[in-house]
What does this fold into?
Amino acid sequence: MIFLLMLFVFMLAIVVGNELISKVPPTLHTPLMSGANAISGITIVGALMGAQYVTDDGTTKQILAVAAIALAMINVIGGFMVTDRMLAMFATKKKGGKK
Amino acid sequence: MENFSAFDLLYLVATAFFILGIKRLSKVKTARSGNQLSAIGMLIAIVVTAYKLNFIGGPDGATLNWSTVLIGIAIGGGLGAIMAKRVEMTGMPELVALLNGFGGLASTMVAFTDFYGLGGNGSETALGAGVWSVAIILSIFIGTVTFTGSLMAMGKLSGKLSGNPVILPGRHLLTAVLLIGGLGIAGYGLFTGNFDAEQSIYILIACSAIFGVVSVLPIGGADMPVVVSLLNSYSGIAAAMAGFVIGNSLLIVAGALVGASGLILTMVMCKAMNRSLGNVLIGGFGGGGGEIDKSEYTSVKSAGPEEAAMILESATSVIFIPGYGMAVAQAQHVVKELGLELEKNGCKVRYAIHPVAGRMPGHMNVLLAESDVDYEQLYELERINGEFKTTDVTVIVGANDVVNPEAIENPQSPIAGMPILNAHESGTVLMIKRSLSPGYAGIKNPLFERDNTYMCFGDGKAFIEDIITELKDA
It folds into this structure.
């Protein structure tokens, strides 16, 4: 039952995503992709859950958990920051470039 | 269903932030705040998860191991920040490819850690052993393919690997064996118990890793926009599958959004090349099929910077068409400077962007935004194509196939039917290019020989700098 519900959520999210993203103009397609990179860093939630099985013993388990969190965080921080950097370049022209 | 908790509500809030954030990306003016909304959603998701795990604990009362969390966040956050700050705008395609790959690998690791942590037994999980096993197999498969495929794409984009398609003998058989073998053994191991589950997962990881490499090898460098978009989609789907593994709807929704986004961009790219996705993925474009005209160009006119400056000086409307060559020559700043110089003359300056110009969707727009071109001067193919007829001069900087009139005039051409920018319809065409060499499609471009075309041979940046000097001296 929960599975069907989640499958339903998955399908609805794809429909919503389709609707929203087809409205994004080509000018913003690169920031869209890097922003999507950041959002796919949501696996950080799963990576954090993995960190509850480990103890401070430096075993493979702990190294795996650290690596999972680090990889997801690269996407989150790197993705949001680089997207912001790009979008700031688009935004400044409104003030500076207009004559 | 059990009662929902405050945590579930906060996850819902985070989901809403993601959706609103993407919605605001549909306008340049609101896009930056949209990205910030998504970031807030992510912050909520992380804090809520950490709080819940720390104070409520997992199913068996295990709580969060903070040193693991903090080390991971410090390493990942630090690396991410450095990469985001240092990357050149010309290097964006490589960065996005790399982030796709990391996203895929993160999903693989989440699924693997869950598998490992539960000792390969998912019977206690929220969704039951069957769904759990399928989700583990799929997220590991898609995540690993995304990882190795993205590394290959990045290598091809950065020039560390040859951009030429590499056709392995018997590659279709090889991919079929990897696909069926990897998924089959993992399914056998997880479902029947006749084969060690952990070993079957290792075999799955190995097969998926090779599958990712073999899939991207035959695809040429200029098709990387399609590949990067598709891998973007995969990284989202892998995250959604990881959501099914751990029974978390936030991962499922966010992953689905990313999956849909990547898929739409993939379709946009394919349409702009008039090719099907299957055709791109099978690869080896340019080899075989259609006869390639190898004859020499006969009546090419060339112009130096002085002549080009004279032509531009008397123009009242100019359209620039940037291509990958502009990114390679780092010429976006001088292009903007030339545009400003022309505007001082009272000339109308616009920029025409072909959807597949550059190495990723929207790449040219970002480069021109970097050099401060007003986004209102950037025009998409559909909006500008009717305007070339009434334009005095079109300046093509490092683009070739996207302005090849063969696409509309010669139905036998390999690129027949591909939408092009109708540069040839304008009064004069200045084609700034290093040589007469063909573009990626490997075919002749009759535009070079047109009466109204002047070839401007040289490095894009140096040539445009010379034009600017001439204009200023005049």
Chain A has a mean pLDDT of 87. Residues 28-90 of chain A form one domain. DSSP finds four helices and no strands in chain A.
